[in-house]
Write a structure and sequence with these properties.
- By secondary structure, this protein is mainly α.
- The protein contains 9 helices and no strands.
- Helix 5 runs parallel beside helix 8.
- The longest helix is centred in the N-terminal third of the chain and has 29 residues.
Length: about 220
């Protein structure tokens, strides 16, 4: 199936919007219903995020590839599987869609549409967590592409679901999502001052993932060509 560039960009923007709306909206709902129990709130934030990723990648993947993540688009451009101008367009669509998703979530819960998040996430172990989470995400994507493409929606959804719990940062693993979450001073928010280091860590994790997974998943016969 062939889709126009406009359709692909619309799919990236819509997917990013719904992903962030799910992340932020479920965070607000979880905080409202958890009675102050952060563990319960995190669980309530985790499940919808992983679930919506499975749905969005399944239905929008055939249109745009379902990146919803500037780090993913960057890596595909570096792999020469996407032209750089197209990757730049994807990144713009992702960021715009993600920010719209945060605004939508705030509005749905009766909050100010745009807020400045105040949750500081600026420690070294959280930056390391973002490197690890993004590295693992690249493994899920490249491993799925190599061995089982139809399973990619589940592989990505389950990777992010598990990384919510095994990383100290709760696995943002996405620069567009990080930027968008600065616009919501809620359970899922991140202070604008904390966002740049998170984004650098995510890009580093993506580049490390590109190098390592490309080597690990390449059969010997291909390496000798």
């Amino acid at each position: 199936m062939n889709f126009s560039n406009a359709q692909k960009l619309a799919a990236e923007a819509l997917g990013s919007l719904l992903l962030v709306a799910a992340v932020v909206g479920s965070g607000i709902m979880a905080a409202n219903l958890s009675g102050g129990n952060n563990g319960v709130a995190l669980l309530g934030n985790t499940i919808p995020t992983g679930a919506i990723l499975v749905v969005l990648i399944t239905i929008l993947g055939p249109i745009s590839g379902a990146h919803f993540n500037p780090a993913v688009s960057l890596v595909f451009a570096l792999r020469r599987e996407m032209a750089w101008p197209t990757a730049a367009q994807y990144v713009c669509a992702q960021i715009i869609g993600a920010c719209a998703g945060a605004i939508l979530a705030n509005t749905m819960f009766g909050l100010a549409p745009v807020q400045a998040a105040t949750t500081l996430r600026g420690s070294g172990h959280q930056w390391l967590s973002e490197v690890v989470a993004t590295f693992a995400l690249m493994g899920a994507i490249f491993g799925g592409l190599r061995f089982n493409p139809p399973a990619i929606p589940w592989l990505v959804g389950l990777t992010i679901t598990s990384a919510y719990w095994f990383t100290a940062s709760t696995s943002f693993a996405n620069p567009a999502v990080t930027i968008a979450r600065t616009l919501s001073d809620t359970f899922a928010g991140i202070a604008p001052a904390s966002a740049p280091a998170f984004i650098v860590a995510q890009l580093l994790g993506a580049l490390l993932g590109l190098a390592f997974w490309s080597w690990l998943l390449r059969p010997k016969a291909e390496q000798n060509r």
